[in-house]
Amino acid sequence: MNNEPDLFAVSQPEQEPLAARLRPQTLDEVVGQGHLLGPGKPLRHAIESGSVHSFVLWGPPGVGKTTLARLVSIYSDALFLQLSAVFSGVKDIRAAIDQAKDARARQRKAVLFVDEVHRFNKSQQDAFLPYIEDGTICFIGATTENPSFEVNNALLSRLRVYRLQSIELLALTALLERASGFYPRLHVTESFLSGVASLADGDARQSLNLFELAVEMVAAQGERAVLDDSLLSRLAATSAQRFDKRGEAFYDFISALHKSIRGSDPDAALYWLARMLEGGCDPIYIARRAIRIASEDIGLADPRALQLALDATAVQERLGSPEGELALAQLVVYLACAAKSNAVYSAFTSATKLARESGSLDVPLHLRNAPTRLMEESGYGAGYRYAHDEAGAFAAGERYFPPEIPPVTLYHPTDRGLEQQIAEKLRRLRAFNAEAEKKGSQR
User: Fold this and answer.
1) How far apart are the first and last CA of the chain?
2) In which band, very low, low, confident or very high, does the pLDDT at 249 lie, cut at 50, 70 and 90?
3) Alpha helices for 87-189 (secondary structure H)
4) Nearest to 25 by CA among 63, 81, 75
């Protein structure tokens, strides 16, 4: 009779999740983060020596923030206290501080771990300040958001910031190999492990959850249970790529899309577009950004880009997803392949600066309209040269700036796309102006 437990059967409710059973108990068991925990690294030395300081762990989900906080308490033999800023309030903070004070009275350190610390408001974050300063707590915050924006300056100035990275594919695969040791009667292929690691998208917790789900899927197969590539498509339907529609990652993605288009790489631009759409980004937001790109990075080098951006936006608004997204893909490819120029963008920036610095100068009289006799008698419009009555519809030598502003060139067209022709025309017109001014000075 075989008394060996059925280790690949569905876990019982009272059993810990696989991710909890595999939570590291030593620094050597931590997966990834070698830039912080490698031999000789300051954070590793601080944890191992027990002389830890207050700090913030900044990184994506599932990379070990909670684990590191727990290890700090283990290595320091400290009381571990945990708060979640999602569920906790001032009452919970006070209760945690009271526990830390009791521990201190017994000559024991207290590690207070605050998950999602960026969700606390300013007053809640400020509540920790005196207890960090007097050593009542070793404060460890965890956040997926950039602390520069989400943690107030008073608290941030008292903390060091350590940035954690997504777990590398090889490290996740090695973690999953360890996980397979909990199921000795289950056959697991190497390609399945690497496939699950890829689906986990750098998230150790997600990789173990997917592995555990796969075990449940094949539990009914008994002795024939195998985890192989045939399960990957079913697991893929349960996972989602990391994309924060509100946080810093959102702006990282839109920046990558913008820079790929500016760099004339249609393939990378399509990739980032797909990543954003798959992550749930509002297609209209992408369309609005594309309109901006058409003006900022392409401009008059290809004026059709702006019209195509408006057309693609209209298609998305009328058809919605997924039909309208093909128009966005077409737009992104066109923008990436179009001739590039930021000449208009730069010229407008310079014009804005000049307008601010020059003050409230009056419009020259010859450029003003004279709809009434009084205005005409006051000199409004006097001496204005109607360009259409001039040779080539150009009034050579005419001035359109206020007289207080010396001649200045703000727009410098490039030699790319339509702007090449625009540049040539402006050179001709400026030559006419120079000739007219020369003749005027000789009179």
Assistant:
1) 120
2) low
3) 90-105, 122-126, 129-133, 147-150, 153-156, 169-180
4) 75
